[in-house]
Amino acid sequence: MRVVQSSKCTVALLLAAAVALAAPVFAKPQTSSSATTAKTAPLKKTVPRSRVVRKRKPRQRVQTAPTAQRISEIQSALAAQGTYKGQPNGKWDAATMQAMRDFQSSHGLTATGKLDALTLQKLGLGSEIAGRAAPAPLSQTRDANESTPQQTP
User: Fold this and answer.
1) Closest listed residue to residue 83, CA positions, set 97, 69, 65, 68
2) What whole-number distance in Å separates Cα of residue 118 and Cα of residue 120?
3) 38-89 pLDDT per residue, tens
């Protein structure tokens, strides 16, 4: 009989604990007097963020192919040097590439058949400073000139 009573007590305690734990879940939330008088702000709708579009950095200009007029100038210069046979047609064809290779090899350049700054310089069509190191910054040049004593006659 004691076993039955102790099991009834255990069941009663377990039931009371379960009710105590479940009570806050089922109970109505208590409101204070200040909460009933204050207006509640409406819930804001969450708007999904749009993707951030970043501006791309401008690309550096790459070397472009020479125009037909420029190719004609190059062919004329090669013909003047005696390596291009025929009339300038403004097309970079096999005859032009061969003439360029011949010109490059006869002037001590690497015979690639392609345009480069030194080849244009040797043809008389390029810059005088082509293929050399970049010029020194202006501030270094100015400092060097100021430190050199100048002679007066």
Assistant:
1) 97
2) 5
3) 566 666 677 677 777 788 887 777 767 889 999 999 999 999 999 999 899 9
